[in-house]
Specification:
The protein is mainly beta and 278 residues long. It has helices at 207-212, 272-276, and strands spanning 3-5, 17-19, 34-37, 60-63, 73-81, 90-95, 100-104, 114-117, 128-130, 139-141, 143-144, 151-153, 161-166, 170-174, 180-184, 188-191, 268-270. The strands form five sheets. Strands 9-16-10-13-14-15-17 form a seven-stranded antiparallel beta sheet. It is globular, with a radius of gyration of 22 Å.
């Protein structure tokens, strides 16, 4: 998927680029697999802001992607479609029973492509198998953390993980971040690399386009008053001098570990930070 540049008829369009939608074969999604997604605008169930700088944006029709395709089945790709709720393209597929599903479209997938799900299916791009049936070194995506729970990892555009090793009960998978993680060998994964790999190279170009995506403006802490932010204030423009970077609530934000202690690390063989130093 190449990147398309705009003819700069306005200042904002000078550095703006967009995705090329030539690979999309249908602009009309299946109504039965579409839901209107109401934005939470950063609020929780009590109405309190839990994520700042969110709100507005265009209305989105969420596609119901099937991340839990297990058992024995096969199907054919009918259309490649755009999904406003994710960076990857999705494929409308029809299984052998005539039922339609949405799945993540892999690189090179086109209408008419075949796919299979099962323990003994061939090792081909697009097929979904348990990790114990996949050879080591294979590029995979849409990986289950626990068998039967559905794909939870490696679902973004252009992403893929690599199966490094496996034994009777566990497998080691290197994730796109560089982290090496232990996963149950009975967990399912799809072979191949997710398409739309140029998504990360798109330049937004204008503030208004960012607002359409549901992002509101962000103000720097050092530009605030001392009463509004720990890094605010300062006579004569001495903003933040002699103070470590902090969040609005005083939490250190640079060189400070913020991972929740409730999260388990026993399945992580190599952290993503160690992977970046290699």
């Amino acid at each position: 998927m190449p990147i398309k540049a705009h003819k700069p008829v306005t200042p904002a369009q000078r550095g703006m680029t967009t995705q090329d939608f030539d690979g999309i074969t249908s602009k009309k999604p299946l109504k039965s697999l579409t839901r209107i997604k109401k934005g939470s605008v950063g609020r929780n169930n009590q109405g309190r802001i839990t994520v700042r700088h969110r709100g507005g944006g265009v209305r989105r029709y969420h596609r119901l992607v099937n991340f839990n395709m297990n058992g024995e089945m096969s199907g054919t790709v009918e259309q490649i479609e755009y999904d406003p709720g994710r960076s990857a393209r999705i494929a409308r597929v029809k299984d052998s029973t005539g039922k339609h599903h949405y799945i993540l479209a892999i690189k090179g997938m086109k209408p008419g492509s075949k796919f299979s799900v099962g323990e003994e299916v061939s090792i081909e791009a697009g097929n979904r198998l348990p990790l114990r049936s996949i050879p080591t070194g294979t590029q995979i995506h849409a990986i289950e953390l626990q068998p039967g729970r559905g794909a939870q990892m490696v679902r973004s555009a252009g992403a893929s993980a690599q199966l490094l090793a496996k034994d009777e009960t566990t497998a080691q998978v290197r994730l796109p971040s560089g982290e090496v993680r232990i996963i149950n060998v009975n967990s399912m994964a799809t072979i191949g690399v997710i398409g739309n790999e140029q998504h990360q190279n798109v330049q937004i170009g204008s503030a208004g386009r960012k607002r359409h995506m549901g992002f509101r403006p962000t103000v720097r802490g050092i530009a605030m008053n001392a009463a509004d932010h720990p890094m605010g204030g300062g006579d004569g423009g001495a903003h933040g001098l002699g103070r470590n970077p902090k969040s609005p609530w005083g939490q250190p934000t640079l060189g400070y570990k913020t991972r929740s202690r409730r999260k388990s690390t026993k399945h992580i063989v190599r952290t993503r930070h160690q992977g970046k130093r290699k």
